[in-house]
Write a structure and sequence with these properties.
The chain is mainly alpha-helical. The chain has 6 helices and no strands.
Length: about 200
């Protein structure tokens, strides 16, 4: 080893002041534990799911009672309303489980033998995709319900708005999927370049 190489030793890392280090640790501890503030939000969504279940049961009872005398279009609209409520329930569950896993705490699936496999594998990008897919499905049902509920009264402006908003959701979902794919491809390409 030559003399210049010996002189090029790295400088010793600067030690932070003990008081500043203590303040830093306290701030990090508070910030890290602040994730638990999201838990009541998810519990609130569970309460919303219970309220949605009540609405679903009422809708099922009304649907069954009116089915014998209902027209075919009314029956289809009733079924679409039930599907709409169940998709909204799915949306709440996706937000609750994925949000809790991503932002609050991991749930150990070993303690739950019937735990759906996808729930432990949904990252933030996957969560966005599932949310948008659910919103697109709910939006499509709303457009279909409006189209079938016209009963001879054609409201082009209302139907146009519904179709336009639905199309906006579809385009947003496609753009999000493409951007996530490009980000994944870029990340994979950089990882491959580092290996070579």
């Amino acid at each position: 080893m030559s003399e210049p190489d010996q002189d090029k030793t790295e400088p010793a890392p600067r030690r932070s002041h003990p008081i500043l280090k203590g303040i830093e640790l306290i701030i990090e501890h508070v910030l890290f534990n602040s994730r638990w503030l999201m838990a009541p939000f998810y519990l609130g969504l569970v309460i919303a799911l219970v309220a949605l279940l009540y609405k679903f049961v009422v809708s099922v009872v009304e649907f069954v009672l009116h089915t014998p005398t209902a027209k075919e279009t009314d029956t289809i609209l009733g079924v679409l309303s039930l599907i709409d409520l169940s998709l909204t329930g799915n949306l709440i569950l996706i937000v609750v489980f994925s949000g809790y896993e991503n932002f609050v705490s991991r749930i150990d699936p070993r303690n739950h033998p019937d735990w759906p496999e996808w729930m432990t594998k949904v990252d933030f990008a996957g969560l966005k995709q599932k949310l948008l897919a659910s919103i697109v499905a709910i939006s499509a049902i709303q457009v279909l319900k409006a189209f079938m509920n016209m009963d001879g009264v054609f409201e082009p402006q209302k139907l146009g708005w519904l179709a336009g908003i639905h199309l906006l959701f579809v385009v947003s979902a496609l753009l999000l999927a493409l951007s996530d794919r490009w980000n994944t491809d870029d990340h994979d390409g950089k990882a491959d370049n580092k290996k070579h």
